[in-house]
Design goal:
Helix content: 25-40%
Mean pLDDT: 91
Number of strands: 12
Strand order of the largest sheet: 7-6-5-4-3-2-1-8-9-10
Largest sheet: 10 strands, mixed
Order of helices and strands: EHEHEHEHHEHEHHEHEEEHHHHEEHHH
Length: 425
Amino acid sequence: MPFHVMTKPVGPICNLDCTYCFYLEKEKLFGNAEKFRMSDKLLSKYIREYIQSQSGPDVSFAWQGGEPTLLGVDFFRRVVELQRQYSDGRPVSNAFQTNGTLLNDEWCEFLAENRFLVGLSIDGPAELHNAYRVDKRQKPTFDRVIKGLEYLQKHGVEYNTLTVVNRKNSKYPLKVYRFLKDIGSTYLQFIPLVERKPDSESKALGLDLATPPDLEGGDREQAMVTSWSVAPVTYGNFLVTVFNEWVKKDVGEVFVQHFDVALGNWIGIGSSLCVFAEKCGRALAMEHNGDLYSCDHFVYPKYKLGNLMNNSLGEMVDSPQQKKFGSDKLDTLPGYCMECSVRFACNGECPKHRFIKAPDGEPGLNYLCSAYKKFFTHVDPYMRIMAELINNQRPAADIMPLARKWNWRPPARLETDDILHVLGP
């Protein structure tokens, strides 16, 4: 069964000091003497085993941090060299997440030449981006990110944008969405920011910012979220508002990850994104020292599967511990979720966010439950039409005239058999 690893060759080290970043303080988990740079020996073993463990014809690597550009271009030249050495002619692709502030001509020439897909982190226009995304001197970073974007565009590097939806920018959905389109982004990811204040367990680990996720549900809703976390009602409004604009104007031209993934669930092919899949456990995270964890959001000691220098990658990925981690996503869903009409699209979202109680008092409900229930219920008639269009070899973009006609008010009853008749030839 395929799996994916988010590789962090520089660990949590970053040149920025974003207010909301829970990963920066993961440095405390590795000791003060830790060298935060993946060794060549480990890099070689990882690339070889990762390629060998992939069953499909293509192999996809993902590199993140911290900030991976801190390693320098030569580190990633070595990455490409090792991939060619071990791939035996199989196609290999690379995705690379960056804050963009260190990009220059040299970086972008390399990224373009080797066809890296770059994810650029940007939270909206300057006043919204700079609210939390600051450097070590607490200075704004927007202008440097835009300069990095210009380098990407100058060299024709394929890129998408990743926007953390937080307490501030979530209040301006159209401002954020239109800004991202204006700067040339056609592939958008929106990541909801949900972080809890530290509890006794996280403080025992020396962590001051985030509470480790609890897959058993637990009675932890008293651990309130941080002041920069998005509010559920605001996040629901954000998704619905962006969708309303997108479905009337931009289908087939702008690709929003949440909408694409939702359509996959309505078509019946399942979610391509782990947070909306029925089970998880196939998207892991590996640190700079070879430690492998169950998930990028679960880099805590109790979710460590082993170290690549002592264990094989395949054995750790398919270990009983990791299989249970993946199955727990479904097995620990509250009854409230199991009876929900949009469970097939949501599946309880990420276990990291399941720390409140359901209306009947059962623990383990997702903090963003009300947001997703609102969003998935709202998009249902549109998704059903787009799914029917695709099933009849027609582009999903054919929905736009109807969406403009409805003006966000689809009929209360929409029979599937009538859809194509409504749309016409």
